[in-house]
Structure formats: structure tokens, C-alpha cells
Amino acid sequence: MTQTTRALRANILHAPTLGKIEALPHGVLIVEDGVIAGVFPELPEAYRGIETQDYGDRLLIPALCDLHLHAPQYPMMGMGMDLELLEWLNTYTFPGEERFADPEYAEGIYAALARELVKKGTTRAAIFASVHLPATRILVEELERAGISAYVGKVNMDRNCTGGLMEQAERSLGDTRVFVEELLARGGSVRPILTPRFSPNCTDALMQGLGALADEYDLPIQSHLSENESEVQWVRSLYPGAAGYWESYARFSLFRPRTLMAHCVHSDERERAAIRDHGVWVVHCPDSNVNLMSGIAPVRRMLNEGLSVALGSDISGGSTLSMMQIATIAIRASKQRRIETKGEDAFLTFAEAFYLATSAGAQYFGEGPGFRAGDPLHALVLDDGALPDSGRLPLENRLERLFYAADDRTIAARYANGKKLEAV
């Protein structure tokens, strides 16, 4: 036992398996040097006398994970929602991202974003920066200052974008190498991830260079796949010999285990099989998919077919950073798909959505599922005392109600990497 051993006591709820929430009324979570030692129904005799933080009748759950968001789009949340993807990118996104050539502007936005992530209970995230290396460095600093664990990528794009964002392949690769080497040497809670915007924005030379970097440094990758029907048709015209959109990444060694592909709304059976067989992760972004009229991803089929799926806010196509809200939007979207398929596709249950918002994202970070012994503590304490009948309801109903309310004022405490965070 170490000198920093302590206990958290509360009603503990977590999801070690998809579709099942485990609840320990007034349970105990033991933390040693910031690492989970175990979850117990009562304080074990071996730990008698240690410091205990008793949260009473509050709920203790794993912290939330957001595996797809665009940091420079934070100022644009809730704007341009009458447009579809490609027009929205050219009208709002690309001009907005050009502003991050100014480091002073980037510092203000990224500091606010990091604070908001903590406020919403998100302690682990996979994040797109912009093409600008100085601004991307600032994003890393602000995330680390806030206590968030993240994968951050300097975006790469050298075609089909506005002039202020257009890179030369050689310069883009050089800046990416510098960023990767800096982060690997730095250590810390933020790690590098290669980030080709999407294949229509990257020449073959750039994609080939990114694939070589992925091999050289064993790096994860994040991008977009089959989000919008017009986008899918565009990729087909750019890669006429490809069997599917996914091949525009696979031919450059970018479709591999630990690749995150956001959306996959229009991935057919063959593409979904390629995703599964290559060990690629799908990041389901239901709010963005509805806002930009892209469609409803077949999440139930993906899960049934054995694909790895997590959730993303996809701001600012998505209009909220609350992963509680994203989880319930995913449930609603799956119910709409069930209606459209006349019952062929089942909807997500709350227990499944809770798993996707917590355990699935944690597993991408090499942790979890649930409160797994040996993992750093990432947790939220939720207080539903102001809601009616809280003391009478089953714990799972109380948790479900809090997710549907999606009110960050109910988050009474936040922990990341074993440390208590302060929401500002």
C-alpha cells in the first residue's frame, strides 16, 4: 500500500461489457497513486484507515470520451446547420480554420475549449487541430494544462481547399514529423495522431508520406469515411479504380488497427467488412450526421458485425460538446433508423450508449472497459439530488435520467489520470 492510497465511496455504475451496466450501491473504489486498485461492495479490511472521500448517495461513473472533434471549429458550433457537408465546409469551416494562423487567436479559443471539455465531463478525446503547427502546439499545451488526455493531430491537406489552408505535401509532412517527434519526446497526457483531413483533401504524395510516418513511428490515424452521399460520389470520381472509399486510405497503409474513421454513414456491407478486418474503429457522430443531413449510420449492424465503435461530438457539425447528450442522440437516431428499416435494425439501449460513451473510448486509449484495475482513474461524480424521487429510483434509472437531462451542473466532481480537476 502506498502513502497516496485513498478510497472513493458512492453509488458506482460502470459498463465492463456492452449492453450491461454494473451497479454497486454505496460501493468503494480504491485508488493507489492515481491508479484504480479495484472496485468493492465494501471497504476491504486491508484498506481500513485510509483516507476516504464519501460522496454519499451520489453516482460515480467513468468519465466521458469524445473520439472525434475539430478544435478550431469550436467558435462555429451551431452555425450553418441549413447546409450539407461539402457546402458547409467551404462556407464556414475552411474560412474559420484559416484564423488559426494567428497564435494569439488560437490560444484564446483553445483555452476556452479545454475548459469546456472539463466542464462537460470529457477527460479523453481524439482531436483534429488545423494545418497550423504553432496553433497545434498551443492546443496541446491547453489540453495538458486542463488535465485532459488526448490524441491530437496537425491536419494535413494539400488540395481541394481554400488558399489559406492549402499546404505543399513536403512542407505538410515536414511539419507533421516535427510535431510527432516533439510530442513523443515530451511524453505527457497528449499523444500524436496522424490526421489527413479526408482523402479528397490529400494528394497521393501526401497520403504516401503519411503512411510512411505511420509505419516509422507506429502512429494511430484519424480521418473521415463515407459521411455524405455527395462526398462518396466525389471520392469515387477521384479514385475510379478503387473498390470503395476505404481503399483511398488502405492503398497508403492508413487503414489499419487504431485508425479512427468518423461517420461511416454510407458504408455498405463490403466496406464494413473491410473496417472490421483491418481493425479500424468507427466513430459514430449522430448529432453531426443529422445536422448536416448526412444520414443515420447503421450502428446496430456495425456492432452485430463485430466492428469497434465509439462516439464523437464532431463539433461543429455537431452542436454540443456534451457526450451525455451525444449518447442519447445516438439512441434517438437508432430508433429513427429502426422505424425507417421497419424493425430490421434494432435500436441502441441506454446501457449500450453508456458503454459507447465511456468504455469504448477508454479502450481506444488502452484502458477499460469500465473501472478496470490497473488503469488511471477517469471518473465523474453525478448529483441528482435536485431531481424528484432520486432516493426512490433504481440506480440505472437515475443514471439514465441524468444523461437525458445532459446538464453539466449535475457533475459534482471530475477526475482525470487520478487527479481531481477543477471546472472553471
Task: Please characterize this protein's 3D structure.
It is a single chain. This protein has 13 helices and 17 strands. The chain has 424 residues and is of the alpha/beta class. The strands form four sheets. It has a seven-stranded mixed β-sheet with strand order 3-2-1-4-15-16-17. A four-stranded parallel β-sheet has the order 5-6-7-9. Helix 2 packs parallel to helix 3. The protein is globular and about 65 Å long. It starts with 5 loop residues before the first strand and ends with a strand.
Helix content: 25-40%
Number of strands: 17
Q: Percent of residues in beta strands?
A: 15-25%
Number of helices: 13
From N to C, what is the helix and strand string?
A: EEEEEHHEHEEHEEHEHHEHEHHEHHEHEE
Distance between the termini: 33 Å
Low-confidence stretches: none
Summarize the topology.
Elements lengths: L5 E12 L2 E13 L2 E6 L10 E12 L1 E7 L14 H14 L4 H18 L1 E7 L4 H14 L2 E5 L1 E2 L12 H18 L3 E3 L2 E2 L7 H14 L3 E5 L3 H10 L8 H4 L8 E5 L5 H9 L3 E4 L1 H6 L7 H6 L3 E4 L11 H18 L9 H15 L14 E4 L12 H11 L5 E6 L2 E3 L3
Parallel strand pairs: 1-4, 5-6, 6-7, 7-9, 8-10, 11-12, 12-13, 13-14
Antiparallel strand pairs: 1-2, 2-3, 4-15, 15-16, 16-17
